Structures are given as structure tokens and as C-alpha cells.
Amino acid sequence: MMPAADGADGTIGPMSTLSAPPAHGVALDLAVEAVETARAAAVEEATADLGPEAAAVAVGAHLGAVVEDGSAVTHRFAADVAGYRGWLWSVTVAAVEDGPVTVSEVVLLPGESALVAPGWVPWSERIRPGDLGPGDLLPVEPDDSRLVPAYVQSDDPAVEEVAVEIGLGRTRVLSREARQDAAERWQDTHGPDSDMARAATEVCGTCGFFLPLEGSLRGGFGACANQYSPADGTVVSVEFGCGAHSEIEVRVGSPVPVSALVYDDGVDLEDRS
User: Fold this and answer.
1) Ranges assigned E (strand) in 118-268
2) Can you give the residue ranges of every domain in the chain?
3) What is the spatial distance between Cα 213 and Cα 209, in angstroms, rounded to a whole number?
4) What is the C-alpha separation between 85 and 183, in angstroms, rounded?
5) Helix, strand or coil for residue 4?
6) Span 26-40, mean pLDDT?
7) C-alpha separations of 91 from 5, 44, 106 in Å
8) How far apart are CA 14 and CA 22, in angstroms?
9) Contact (Cβ atoms closer than 8 angstroms) between residue 112 and residue 63
10) 3 state DSSP class of 232
11) What is the DSSP letter of 216?
């Protein structure tokens, strides 16, 4: 008689792996009871890499069995293998009536608590800002949404006119989406809501060190050219500000107290000689 399953998913023992519903039959009974046959197969598989003594220890306690079909069962054993914490030995055996139990497959599989490598991510999705180093090449995809043909999207009439009339200009320029994304990034670090800008009394848009950008972003952004500013050499919002504004004036007083000036032109002097 086949041992009763712990749940309706066909799992026998403490395992919780989903499986097909168990089917009654002599062949299935034989496969379920073939725990030692499955263990021996796992030890044999481990022996090739670990040696006989270590292999016997590497195959631990029987964790349960999962019914695959009417004649096949997968037995799971705890794995005690260096570098494979939380992994399981998975041994699939099959049986027929009046025949021996045979081993179909022996593999080492990760359990629920196993340490496994993260899922594969394409290189184009792994690259992050700041990853590019000296000598590195970063080609763009043909359908990169950040770029469009220069003659399709240009918010600067002067650029359009020159490109059309004399055929000069870049092959591609930033798309509207890419310009909006750039503006959002620049607002985060050098925008009006930064700590530096909130503490400043003046804004970059009125500073002599402010170099406006060309094109559609010139009304909102520029480059800082003040070597004493923390934003020197970076793109800043016209609403950003710092303490190095060109029009800041500081009143400098005398370090020595000066008495009030007294005019004595109208005082009569008495001769006491």
C-alpha cells in the first residue's frame, strides 16, 4: 500500500514542492519506498567530486518525496556540500511492476534558503551613470529613445534654418524625452530646492559667472564658471544659488571703534593768557 501523502499536492514527507496528484499502484509504491536506492545514487554522484568519505556525509537526511507520475518519484535529501548552503539532492527514480527500481536523474538543486546567483541582466541594462572609465566605449542602441535625427526635433529655429540650408549639424540630437529627463536630474543636485540654493540670497540667473546653455534649455540652465563655487564646471538651474554670486556686496567696517565727528567751528575761544 502506498504511503499517504501529507497534502493534496502529491508531496510525501515534509517537502512542500508542488507535484501532480498521486496515483495508486504497485509501481508507485516501489518508487516511494526506494529511499535507500535514491540515497545511494546521490552518494555515487557526489563521490566523483568529493571522494567516498566526503560523499557519504554530503548526502544528508531524507526530506521527503514528490510524486511525478504513476511510476516516478523524486526524493529530496539535505546537501552538506561546501559552497552550497541550502541546496538539496534531488533523485528521481522510476519503477514498474515486477521490475527493479531504476534511477532516472540525480541533480543538486537550490532550496528555498539557498544562496544563488542573481538573475541574468543584459549588459545594456546593467550599465549605470558613473560606470564609464578612461578608454571605455559605450555605443548607443539604434533605437535609443534619448536620440532622434537632428532634422526631426529641434526647438531652436536658428539651428533648423542652418541645418536645412547648408546641410551642417549633428546626425542626431537629444529627443524631447531625453531633454526632460536631463532637466529633472539637474534640478535634483543644482536646483532651487537644494540646501545650498535655499541658503543663498541670489540666484544663478543673475550671476556674472553663469553661462547659459544653447538650445531649448537655455532659459532654464547654464554652466557655472566661478572657481570658488561648489558648482563650478557643472550645469546649474537659473534658480540655483550659492554664496559666490557675482553681485554680492559685503560692507566692511573699521576694526577700530571710531568716535563720532564733532564740528567746533561755531565755538568761541577765550584767551586766558
Assistant:
1) 147-149, 172-174, 210-212, 221-224, 235-237
2) 11-110, 187-237
3) 13
4) 47
5) coil
6) 82
7) 18, 11, 5
8) 16
9) no
10) strand
11) G
Amino acid code (one letter) for 164: V
Share of the chain above pLDDT 70, in %: 75
Beta strands, E only, 168-209: 172-174
The residues, any chain, with a CB within 8 Å of residue 265's CB and separated by 6 or more, are: none
Please state the length of the chain: 273
**222, 235 Cβ separation under 8 angstroms:** yes
User: Has residue 220 got a pLDDT over 90?
Assistant: yes
Give the per-residue pLDDT at 192: 92
- Match 514498474 to its residue by C-alpha cell: 96
CA torsion sign, 215 to 220 to 221 to 222? positive
The CA distance from 50 to 46, in Å, is 6
At 189 the three-state DSSP class reads helix
Strands lying side by side in the sheet with 210-212: 210-212, 221-224, 235-237
CA distances from 25 to 30, 31, 32, 91, 93 (A): 9, 10, 11, 20, 15
The Cα 235–Cα 81 span in angstroms is 54
